[in-house]
Amino acid sequence: MESDRSAVSVTRRRNSAQSTYLPSFEWDVNGGCDGRLAAFQQSRQSLHHRARQVMDTLLEGVADNALSVLQKSPDVNEEDAIPTCVLVSHEPSSNIVILRRLDQLNQNTHSLLTLELGWQDFGSNPTLQSGVKSIVLGLLSKYADDDAHKRYIKSALNSTDFNTIHKWYKDSYIQDNPPKLVLTLRDFEALPPPMVQDLVSLLTHYRKYIPINLVLCIDSSPAAIYRLLPRYTIIKLAMTQVAAPSANTTFEAIIGELFFSTTYNSPITLSSSAFDVLYDTFNHSHNSFEHLLHTLDMQLLDHFFQPYSIFFDTDAVSVESIKDDRVWRYLLSLPSTISYLKQGREAVDRKLCNELLAEKVNSEGLLKSLRRLRKVFKQSVDEENDAFRALQHLRSFIHSVVPDSKDFLPNAKAQMQAKTHGDLAKIVDKTLQSVSLMSKAQLYEWLSGYADTKSSMKSDQLATKQLMSFMDKFTAHGEIKLNTNEQSTRDPDFVEFTQTCAEEWTQHFIVNLVEERLIPFEEIWRVGVSSDLQMLVNPSPRHAILTALRYPQKLLGQHYPEISLDEAMSSDNAPDTCLAFKCYIEAARVFNLSDWFSAFKSVLESGSDQSKKSKKRKKAGDEDEETIQLQARFTQAVNELDSMGFVKKASARNRNIVARTVFMHVEGDDDEKGVGMETIAE
Amino acid sequence: MVKERNTNIMQLLPDDGKIQPINSEDDWGSEDNEDLTNSTDATPSKPIITPTTSDVYFQYQNIPARPSNSLFPYPPLTAKETRTALENAPQKPCVPRQSHKRRYLQWKAELFLLHRPLIFTGFGSKRGAIDDFVRELSGEYDVITIDAFNPSITFRGVLEGLLAVHQKSSIPSSTPTDELMRSVQLQYSRASTPRIVAVLHSMDALTLHARKNVDVDKLKRVLGSERISVVASVDHLNAPLLFPAHDAAVGLPWLWHDLSTLEPHLMEMAQRATSLLHSSQAASSTGIVPTVSGARHVIASVPDRARRLFVAIAQLQLERCSEGEKSDATAQNTSTTLTPSHASPRHALVSMAKQSFIATSEDAFEAALAEFRDHGLIQSSSSPPSNTHVDGPEQYIWIPLDQRSLRRTLEDGD
């Protein structure tokens, strides 16, 4: 308790040793940590890169809209109010992407003078003065020549005066069509509203001379403007809203592109529980793109903490680098391998199956089989994704034909979930029922949707084949043949054809989507989720604190054999704070510290009753010592509870009276037939 | 408690004020679900009507907010006393430090591979456990440790510490804090700057106790710099409100870990060991709070007679206290008048002083007590103690120290 030591201290590093961040098991592979690290970094970079690309394409249109809004904004003579483009994104990172794109677009046209202002530009204690200074210096350094820059700063006008900009603008742009000046407030919600009001007033004044435009970036909802700014400021802004796609669209696009796409070769696939974690955190706690990436990171990290992940990059592993047979035994104990061997159906690799059963471990052949398996796994994932894409395409086609049908509402999120859980059977069934009811034109339209893509994917091939046979049978000279009574009765040939079609597709979907596929060792390439991850991604600190206070035995029992996990601890063993808390939860809303102290005292005394009985005769001095110690322990416990936020002052007059801040219904679980902590004497 | 089933439906309702703990749907005050509690066969016969969580809530609300008026029986301890007492207190078991070791690799990976700041929560002092972890890192990185619970912490101090890690020359005190903040941010956003680890113990204490010294938002902006890896701990139950997810915008996408250690917060609480328990009886009319050490100083500095008089009064008071305790232990604190029951009538004290040749006159008696009165060690009142029968007007004199302090004052004063 050296209370007088300084609050900030620095420890220098001792050496430049590089420590490891990922585990390496003594029995797996030489340099296991490095192998894992490389694979992890590679996968992570690939996923991040792709996700950002998707985000860029998703928001491209928004940036185009914003640019056209700015370019078409009214001139100084036409409009007094400042033309303002309100960029609404539903999460923080979208606006940054949009602004970057906007900047790129503007570089091609040069029709706008732009300047972005973040919260930093207004100073750490945001003021209008530092804001104006940033605007002046920023614009001059960006668009004025060096000489001119210095001249304007040096001349009578100083850098904190907006007049400098006015003068510079008037001098520099004398032509008929001067460029517009666009100021972007990147962190609109983070800026103090009075300052924004002042800024708007200032800009309105200069709007008479300079065509100033504003861009306000808003992360929450457009209502933020109306909440933060008063009416007389709002009427000075001629606002046009440009909104980014909703958070759900972002999720569907990114997850769909990362894990359910046929164009992107994802380094890893999702298991159903991993998808659920992503889905839950996105829906229930953090609705942002950044957090989605963070969750993915955590899942990857979790994956590369597993022993089997050493085989993730199968090509990098050689027989010589494997240290021990235990690696193979570990692989053989993976659930997928066990169920694969048990099922005994047609094997992906008969040789491998034999090898596994014979337990001929650590051979070159086995490693080769593993490499082959990886290819098989990748191919199977590709096929699944291809079929899934076909299913989605079909469903969205049906939705466009029958928009009222509730069964075909586009909900990619739910379908992805169903796919990872293997619940697509019902959806496939419902979808294909509609195929057999299609008209000739509809079927043609649907199938020809595939014909453009000349890919080698199975779905495309199937569609092309069916389209050919459709054209053979039902078209003449490029037009669909219709029977005379086609309106009322269906062509029996066509009915037969659609049924075959539907059957073929059913077969295709069943093989690729519905039937469970078993590939041994698939855990190596599929992200599973350990139970801790959910706690990390969705933590509940409050729960952790309350549990530790109420059931210290659950924590201690793992380390001390004498403490039982299920029985309440005796007051000799339980931490003082837990004892004080025990009294606390039995108190009313407002209570007296002195009563709390007597309760605490009796809990402690009843715990040590037997041992003290022999020394009944005590000196007054000893008694004092004892009470001092009790008081010190109680003070410590109460201070701790206070610092955790369990009590607050309740009376101005009597400082001993405090109020509870945490209530819970706990009487029931502590009254465990006499094994609970000692009851408190009245 | 619920009475036995009867024809009268009213009897099925829980008795007033009592909450029937039937179903352990808990924590209606918090959003947590307590999965550790198992609502098993504890109640063999369930009544028909059981209180819902909302019933429990309203019942809690109906408990009258009338705490007892009793005063805390002892004066606050000094920091030194607390320290010695706690050092001698029995050691309670806590989660062994070794058991956190297996999580180091995970934490390191999160810090340096994912570049996420860690924030540790849970009950118990996390200082020792975090220091152990950081010691492991200090081989590779420079570490700056910030004790946020220390009231002397300043934002400037933190900035200077951060600059001092890589800068040998001292920073002139005339540099404004904003300038320092900018240079720290600049330095730690450069890719060439070696990464450092910033450890913040009890980070929530900044907002709770030292608001004037440190602006948490500014601190977050500094810590969010690229080349700083943050390891922080928080104690408060509602700390997530202070460090929300959108801190990611300033570069701090917190990763929460439960690190319940059950260790006592000895170091963290050392600063405020005596601040909570203030006995209101202690405040005297002069505004001076009498303490044992203060009394000793006064006793040492007064003339011999005055000292003897004070000791005599103190001993008398001690006797009266122990008598009072035997007859009625609770009476002394619950009385409505200000005069405590152990106060002695003035005439009795004067005659006692005369008999023992301490003060021969009333003036001498008053003169001897004057110094003590100035220091708030003697108080008097004309209203009699509640349990005393009075005949005429009389002044009552007492020493505003409790029995224990008085005894300790006398022990050393003699």
From TrEMBL, chain A:
- What keywords appear on the UniProt entry? DNA replication, DNA-binding, Nucleus
Domain of life of the native organism: Eukaryota
Q: Which GO terms describe its cellular component?
A: DNA replication preinitiation complex; nuclear origin of replication recognition complex; nuclear pre-replicative complex
Q: Name the Gene Ontology biological process terms.
A: DNA replication initiation
Q: Where is the Origin recognition complex subunit 3 winged helix C-terminal domain?
A: 542-663
Q: Where found in the cell?
A: Nucleus
InterPro entries xref list: ORC3 (IPR020795), ORC3_N (IPR045667), ORC_WH_C (IPR040855)
Chief localisation class: nucleus
State which residue ranges cross the membrane.
none
Which GO MF term does the entry hold, naming one? DNA replication origin binding
Q: Which residues form the Origin recognition complex subunit 3 N-terminal domain?
A: 33-311
**Family note:** Belongs to the ORC3 family.
The protein's name in its UniProt record = Origin recognition complex subunit 3
Instruction: List the source organism.
Output: Wallemia ichthyophaga (strain EXF-994 / CBS 113033)
Automatic annotation (TrEMBL), chain B:
UniProt KW Nucleus keyword: yes
What is the annotated localization of this protein? Nucleus
Query: Which GO-annotated molecular functions does the record name?
Result: DNA replication origin binding
Q: Where is the composition biased (Polar residues)?
A: 329-342
**Domain called Origin recognition complex subunit 2 winged-helix: residue spans:** 340-403
Q: Which residues form the Origin recognition complex subunit 2 RecA-like domain?
A: 98-259
Using the UniProt annotation, give all residue ranges assigned to the region (Disordered).
Answer: 1-48, 322-345
Q: Where is the composition biased (Acidic residues)?
A: 24-35
Entry keyword annotation includes Nucleus? yes
Q: Which domain of life is it from?
A: Eukaryota
Keyword annotations from UniProtKB, A to Z: DNA replication, Nucleus
Query: Would you name any one GO CC term?
Result: nuclear origin of replication recognition complex
Pfam families this protein is in?
Answer: RecA-like_ORC2, WHD_ORC2
InterPro entries per UniProt: ORC2, RecA-like_ORC2, WHD_ORC2
A GO BP entry is: DNA replication
Where would one find the signal peptide in this protein?
Answer: none
Task: Describe the task this protein carries out.
Answer: Component of the origin recognition complex (ORC) that binds origins of replication. DNA-binding is ATP-dependent. ORC is required to assemble the pre-replication complex necessary to initiate DNA replication.
Q: What's the family?
A: Belongs to the ORC2 family.
Describe the protein's quaternary organization and the partners it interacts with: Component of the origin recognition complex (ORC).
The name of this protein is Origin recognition complex subunit 2
